[in-house]
Amino acid sequence: MKRRLHDLFEHKCIAVNRQRGNANEISVHLPSDIPACRELIDLLIRKNAKIEPQEKDERDYYTDPGRRLMVLARDRHACVYCTTALSEENFVLDHLVPVAKGGTNRKHNLVAACEVCNRRRSDSDPIQFLRENYRQQLLSQEEFLQQKEYVESLLAESAG
């Protein structure tokens, strides 16, 4: 035990703060505060940053019931266009780029929507539709900006 304490002290995992008589106060450092651990953490961060992006997901998320629910979960059980809460029973999937205009059933082209927004949007531009919902005060400015950024990121991923 005594040798292991010495190792912990040597590697700066613990430190003796003060000594009183025969008693020591010892502080234990977090891994991020230990130089050897910090080096490993930094190495892992750099290594993970270099990981190649995964292959593009070509699967059909529109017709598969399990994958449909994955889109609902990804969109936090809320309509992307008006942020109304959705459940497994009342959501629909909306194509950002309609199939008639070259859109696919891949997950980055699909969003969870309420039936009202899905019907109102039809095949109009999703960003323009978000803007209309904002103008009709269905979304706050903050919600509009968040949803706009989210839809734009999906459209970019779908195109790339």
Report on the architecture of this protein.
There is one protein chain. The protein is an alpha+beta fold and 160 residues long. The protein folds into 2 domains: 2-49, no CATH class; 65-159, DNA Binding (I), subunit A (Orthogonal Bundle). It is built from 6 helices and 4 strands. The chain has a two-stranded antiparallel sheet. A hairpin with a 2-residue loop joins strand 1 and strand 2 (23-28). The protein is elongated.
Binned, the helix content reads 40-55%
The CATH architecture name of the largest domain reads Orthogonal Bundle
- Describe the largest sheet: 2 strands, antiparallel
How large, in whole angstroms, is the Cα Rg?
26 Å
Instruction: Give me the strand/helix succession.
Output: HEEHHEEHHH
How many separate helices? 6
Molecular shape: elongated
Summary keywords:
160 residues; alpha+beta; DNA Binding (I), subunit A; 2 domains; two-stranded antiparallel ribbon; two-stranded antiparallel sheet; 6 helices; 44% helix
